[in-house]
Write a structure and sequence with these properties.
The protein has about 190 residues and is mostly beta strands. The chain is built from 3 helices and 12 strands. It has helices at about 1-15, 90-95, 95-105, and strands at about 20-25, 30-35, 35-45, 55-65, 70-75, 75-85, 115, 120-135, 145-155, 160-165, 175-180, 185-190. A hairpin with a 3-residue loop joins strand 1 and strand 2.
Length: about 190
Amino acid sequence: NRQTDTMRDKFFRAQLGQTITFNHPERGGITGQILGSIEYTELWQRTNAPSEPWVPTGNSFAAHWLGSQLLYEWQSRLYVLDEYQPLSDADIQQSFLPHAKRFAQSNQTAQVSFAWPPASWTIADIGKFRVARAEGQGLRLNTGAEGRFIHCNGADRRALVVEDYQSGQGGQDTAWIGYTLDWDDIQKIG
């Protein structure tokens, strides 16, 4: 839809200092100023082999930190993430990795659900990314950082986004909790 594409373009091109007005599923209308901005590059392997390098797919996505929310786009999904918890490698290995491996072994087709406070989650997508650009304040990552992601859905439009950065790669492993949004929920960028 043309209106969605226009808002997606505006979102991708939004700059530090601009404001975004959006409809939060629980809190209603919110306007926030962009304090930090991230551009992610999607990575993939031509063949699934340990020696195969990860290369850019050509797809890039944006996220904007508004001080208490991260508006985060990935493929056709849009999230407002308003809670975060730093994770350790042990947290990831115990709480997330077994489920992500099961999902990967099914060629990302199995319905893989698991519990992680405060809810039950179903994996929607897994993959790898590189931070192409990180600017502004409040970010827990640096340009050039690479990591893996797990995106999950819960009841009532709840969402869980896990970012697992490679050791020494300039990012804080984090579990973000929030909600899925529709592009129609973004009312204004200016």
